[in-house]
Amino acid sequence: MIRKGRATVTEVTLDEAGPIHALELWDAAGGDAIAAALGHALPAAGRSAGIEGRQVLRQQPLVWLLDGAGFDPAAIALALGPHGALTAIGGGLMRARLSGPGWRAVLMHDGVFDAEQAAFGPGCTAATIIAHVAVTLHVIAEGQCEVLVPASYAEPLVAGWRRVAAGLA
Amino acid sequence: MTGPAARLTRPLVRFRFDGRAYEARAGDTLAAALLANGVTLVARSFKYHRPRGIMAAGVEEPSALVTVGTGGRREPNTRATDVIVYDGLEAFSQNAWPSLDLDLGAVNGWLARLIPAGFYYKTFFGPPRRWMIYERFIRKAAGLGAPPVEPDPDGFAHRAAFCDLLVVGAGPAGLAAALAAAEAGQRVMLVEQDARVGGALLRDPVTIDGMAGVPWAEAAAQRIRMAGGRVLLRATANGYWDGNLVTVVERLAEPGQAPGASRLAQRLWKVRCGRVLLATGAIERPLAFAGNDRPGVMLSQAVRGYVRRFGVVPGRRAVIATSHDDGYRTAFALAEAGAEVVAVLDGRATPEGDLVERARARFPVFAAARPIATRTSGHRLAGVTAEVAGRTQAFAADLLAMAGGQTPVVHLHKQAGGELDWDEVTQAFVPGPSRQGQRSLGAAAGRSVLAAILAEAWEAGGGAARDFAVEDPCGPAQPAAAAVIPARLPGKAFVDFQNDVTLDDIDLAWREGYRSVEHLKRYTTLGMATDQGKTSNMAALARLAQAQGVAIPQAGLTTFRPPYTPTTLGAFAGPAVGDHAGPVRRLRLHAAHEALGAIWLPSGYWFRPRAYPQPGETPGEASLREARMVRSRVGLVDVSTLATFEIAGPDAAALLERVCATTVGRLAVGRGRYTFMLREDGLVFDDGTVWRIAEERFLLTSSTGGADRMAQHLSYVRNVLAPDLRVSVVNLQEHHCAAALAGPRATAVLERLTGDAAPLHMHCHRTAIAGTAVLVLAASYSGERAFEVYAPGDRIAAVWAALLAAAQEAGGGAYGLDAMDHLRVEKGHVVVGAEVDGRGTPADLGLGGMVRKAGGFVGWQGLQRPVLADPAGRRHLVGVESLAGPLPEGAMLVGRAGDEPQGHVTTAAPRVAGEGWIGLALLRDGASRHGETLHAWSATRGLDVPVRIGPPLFYDPEGARYRD
């Protein structure tokens, strides 16, 4: 935890990502079917939808991430039918959580995405590159952002963020 | 504004120069501090070792280059004008021996006639062996300061930033523009290379809207911050790239200074901007006359800056040499500070105006006057000889302030692709049409009247049109007419002070036929020093234009390249140094391998276990023991780094048939097959296996090293070549981790753990190990019965532990990459990066029989080209057997040492089953040369080993060991 005076600037934690599935759709009917199964529409580009433990993140034009243990993959696959494919990917991801007012500045280091733009707020997602590593950002709250990181890169990447966060203090 | 009296109110700072202790005042540059201490001799020049002092006050300083700091923080060739003094600063002069005061290198000055411009090209020629001699002297003479030997102990960061408007330069124009934009709600970033905002306001006592210039500047910066703008000081915009990307180097610590808590010395900002306003100011031009490089000869505005900003008076008896009104401002500043202005030499025939008249009332002003020579006493300026209306006149003086015109700083404008226009009045290039989102303001745009500059900048920032009330005790500034360079000058009149290029050198180059400015530059080294000709290029162009009989714009212009000012390599490297020079990828099982005593091998970005040596074992002994363990009992190896892709959907088979050169689409569920992939030119670029794990779902594995390339290839095929297919391709290299169990006891180990019958060779099934669902693929790389066990990465540890314990119980254990390599060489299995080097066809690698005859895959058309279809003369995969000791990997295959190579050894290994050394090789027409004896020759290692060529298979040719 990095503190400036008495305030936490940025705290960075790292955990297993847990169950995550990649959902790819090949047609609009698939979107309707999944929306019906989820109980809400699939989020638009750069956005997430859902509740805690059942978050849907749009990652590519036709790919969404189903993030959380609250999903029933079998039921989703059944609803999906011939309209797309569902593939488990969570075993390869770690979840970094950056908390505190400095998280935006931390993610600007070694990256190319504008994490400081005001519009990038809670419910926003971005697939980008930081320090040569493909990551997915998900703003959870104004002061918190989750980053899905390939497991093999996670430790040095998070160590770098902690180093940067220390420099902000 | 400080002045000499206010200077004393600033805190004391202590520093050392050439080992001697001095005191400075907080906020001083090193140059200001040295001048305040009466130190005028600061450096020796590059070529002639002439004594040099401080000429400028900013980054354009060509002469006062020093080394700052010690150990890993030592920074050579640092401009004394661009270092803010801090407590404990240590600076050293450079290019002088045995001392700065008495430098034996100054003998070069006496030998000047022997080393004119281009002497390098006239002297160092002849046969290459002479260069072995020349090189020693050239290297010794090259450069000024010495680079540090120790690693830099500090950190460097890279950071992105985005803004609607980037303003470069926090002088009055930049501040007005940034303030207008920030208060209009734009995302604004303002960067200033100095430690203070204000620019010219720091040296000229103007008021803006009733407020003194410096407080106005500081208040403006504060308002910008309050409006959400970002203001960076000690931040130099050093490059303007495509797409309105500007790089900015921010100094967080001064050269040689230990950084603060962040431990960062510098931060490189990559700023992507909507618009860029360039308020980069202008650089004053020196005058050309004999001895214009003496300590005590300075730029006029720099003198004013030292007096008014730092409270330092660089001389007590001053001569002002000017070509325009601005020089008079310096005369008044010096007089206010108590110096005596002994003469104002105005190059104009009839200078006039209010400021000139006021000066005439206070100082001796001479029209049609210019300096022609200087004299020194003890390396300090002692006198100036001038030509006044055609007659020679001498003045005793210890300071000469030159005002030879202004050169707008157009570097970033040009780097952005902008064009230049020519301003006849000021004889200067000014920014012309832009190519990107840049616009120049203020002095950088050739403007001189402050009120107009502020109004224009305010509007450029997005503010509504308004006027600024500016009061200037010297009256509105006038355009700065440039000094005329005389046709003939006696003595050494320097143009490029840093590379010791004189007007005579330019004239000589012209006489020797160098007509182009680009040739002139390279022949004389003009503008090629670390200052990139900031103070020299215009004078040289003027001289070249004189010789050509054309106007300056017709003489041409050299290229403005980034970086604008010298940039430390650390800023470019950022955090990518040492172990972090590239990303590091850690295995999920890293800790488990560590616990087994693994020694590590970099494999791409991965670190993989090379071997697990037992006490007293060398790595080679360990890997051979491990390989023999696999041949005789059972071994377990981590293959988690293999590229794996899940390909799902009704068209999954169709996609794979496009990607793979073998028949894979008709695989039954639960079956797998070896395959390989071609580039579009028909050459093999990777290999792997395909498994049908469900009716519409396949698993494709390929090499570790080619994983990213394969991902890119699959994306290309999926999205470009076959966008209509209903298929999903997901890269699971990170999701899947895998352990390969191999050896004659592997089946028993697996069956005991799972309770299921092991799958047949090239079959797969799902089962569970240690409570974790796993996918088992029966495939052999070692040549023994083997299984790859796949589990999600977050659950692989338990699976590995169970497999390892069972393997150990069966007399086996873990093995590393080296053992795996030994095993696969015996079986003649190719590996990407060695045998698969991007130059072989399937037939070259002995895989021609597997190619799908019907085609339809990437590379099929390329493969039909005669040059690939005809095997004659191509390099074929062969086996090589050493006839005398270890086989050197990478060695050339030759008839005898020194002959033209016919191929090379791609991999070498000790025999696992047996003794001696074997290897794989690519050999011209190798398929028809089995039985031949050649030499594996390595000239660099001095090795020459006779080898016998044979088929690339040394073990179990029937494949009985891995079949069921």
UniProtKB/TrEMBL annotation, chain B:
<dbReference type="Pfam" id="PF12831">
    <property type="entry name" value="FAD_oxidored"/>
</dbReference>
<dbReference type="InterPro" id="IPR013977">
    <property type="entry name" value="GcvT_C"/>
</dbReference>
<dbReference type="InterPro" id="IPR028896">
    <property type="entry name" value="GcvT/YgfZ/DmdA"/>
</dbReference>
<dbReference type="Pfam" id="PF17806">
    <property type="entry name" value="SO_alpha_A3"/>
</dbReference>
<dbReference type="InterPro" id="IPR029043">
    <property type="entry name" value="GcvT/YgfZ_C"/>
</dbReference>
<feature type="domain" description="SoxA A3">
    <location>
        <begin position="491"/>
        <end position="574"/>
    </location>
</feature>
<dbReference type="GO" id="GO:0016491">
    <property type="term" value="F:oxidoreductase activity"/>
</dbReference>
<dbReference type="Pfam" id="PF01571">
    <property type="entry name" value="GCV_T"/>
</dbReference>
<dbReference type="InterPro" id="IPR041854">
    <property type="entry name" value="BFD-like_2Fe2S-bd_dom_sf"/>
</dbReference>
<feature type="domain" description="Aminomethyltransferase C-terminal">
    <location>
        <begin position="875"/>
        <end position="956"/>
    </location>
</feature>
<dbReference type="InterPro" id="IPR027266">
    <property type="entry name" value="TrmE/GcvT-like"/>
</dbReference>
<feature type="domain" description="GCVT N-terminal">
    <location>
        <begin position="589"/>
        <end position="853"/>
    </location>
</feature>
<keyword id="KW-0560">Oxidoreductase</keyword>
<dbReference type="InterPro" id="IPR036188">
    <property type="entry name" value="FAD/NAD-bd_sf"/>
</dbReference>
<dbReference type="Pfam" id="PF13510">
    <property type="entry name" value="Fer2_4"/>
</dbReference>
<dbReference type="Pfam" id="PF08669">
    <property type="entry name" value="GCV_T_C"/>
</dbReference>
<dbReference type="InterPro" id="IPR042204">
    <property type="entry name" value="2Fe-2S-bd_N"/>
</dbReference>
<dbReference type="GO" id="GO:0005829">
    <property type="term" value="C:cytosol"/>
</dbReference>
<dbReference type="InterPro" id="IPR041117">
    <property type="entry name" value="SoxA_A3"/>
</dbReference>
<comment type="similarity">
    <text>Belongs to the GcvT family.</text>
</comment>
<protein>
    <submittedName>
        <fullName>(2Fe-2S)-binding protein</fullName>
    </submittedName>
</protein>
<dbReference type="InterPro" id="IPR006222">
    <property type="entry name" value="GCVT_N"/>
</dbReference>
